[in-house]
Protein: Sugar-binding protein
Organism: Streptomyces brasiliensis
Amino acid sequence: MESTTSNGGRTFSRRWVLGAGATTLLTAGLSACGSSGGSGSGGGTITAFVYGDDAVKVQVKAIDRFNASAAAKKAKGKIKLEKVPGAEYPAKLRTAMGSPNAPDVFFNWGGGSIKAYKDANQLIDLTDIIKSDSVLKDGFLPSVLAAGGLSGHNYGIPMRGMQPVILFYNKSLFAEHKLTPPTTWDQLLDINAKLKKAKITPFALGGADVWPELMWLEYLVDRIGGPQVFEKIKNGDASAWGDPAVLKAAETVKQLIDDGAFGKGFSSVAYTNGGAPAVFAKGKAAMHLMGSWEYSTQLGKFPDFAKKDLGWFAFPSIEGGAGDIRNVVGNPTNYWSVNARTSNKDAALAFLRECASEQYAKDLVANGDIPTTANAEKLLDASPNPEFAKFQYKMVQQAPAFTLSWDQAVDPNVSTPMLTEINKLFVGKSSPSQFVTALKGLK
């Protein structure tokens, strides 16, 4: 799912860069890691790799502040930022991590994006460091801090904005047909029936891109089986695809498709070319399950709709399901991780604390992002849409669990075939039971 920010809007580079580059993460060379300075805290300048998009200005300011700070002086070190073009990022990071010139600190997406490095013992386990440091322990929303880790251990510190998946709706259409946002699945199905009777497609869906389809399964598995089902899968237990919640979610998706909830041509509609947002904004579909960047997308393409008619609500609960309606799926944020062989661990850890600062959060808000810091809510009046910003923040703040987007959470070698199987389910080339069998076979 999308990741990067540009003047409050979203670009699509993360989707493509991970698909192309991250699958190479498991190739040979990872064990030959290490920054040029060797391990320890020997002082001097250390390197930070960052994804080089428009949002990088926040990290540039942070490093300038840090390098001039007492913390940098005490650690006897400064940070040099290396901005890597987005399309090259995963491949360049992989190559660098297998060389003598590996970065000391580097940007990542958590979950599967760092699993190969964790398995090769290339990352500092930050779990105990966070627990013993009040700035890091209390500085971030717990669900976000946890979401970037693996097997219950922390390997990253949040460093960009949150991007939960939200159900958006057309307020004018809902008012015209006397509908109110649902809190239960049965209420949602009742709304679907009323919309179809009025010849309105319930949901826009950019099926040509596949990843928008993934969002439906992510929420359904959570609401039916709870976050622990996917947590097992994320940590490498392929048999967990056989959990009854996965089959039930697939069956629910098939029911929605057969019932016309996404219309007839969703598999030829894309999100990335603006197709699905247009279907939604023009009133041809009443709702759209999408990442929080949908607001920025609509503001850019259909500003009147964004300002007057765009509403939002949480994904409904499912009767008898184990998942809390407050649980969230999506992209919690991006993370800084630290190379286990950094030449100045003290400087690297001191820099991570900068991400919990109020000034860092203010810079994110000014860039159109919603910070994941624990004290950010009071800053959101300065955001482009304070109402929407505060809804997102409270949604994540109150979430018992925040499930990282599946295609980012699983091993990169699993991500592409998983998306292929999801698409087969949505276009009717695979039954729910065949879908589960195929996923259980992914290693």
In short: Confidence is low (pLDDT under 50) at residues 2-41.
